[in-house]
Amino acid sequence: MEGFSSVTNLQALSTLLNPPDEDDEGDCAFVPSNAKLGPGHIGPAKSAESKVATSPYIKDSSKDIWSEKEVAEGAQFDDITDPRPQPEYDIVLKQRVGTEDIFLGMSRKDPSSMCCESMVVKIKLPGTKFMEVVLDVKEKFLDLRTPKYRLGLHLPHPVHSQEGTAQFLSEKEELEVTLPMNRPMDCINLA
Question: CA angle at residue 109 from 103 to 115, to 5 degrees?
Answer without folding.
Answer: 140
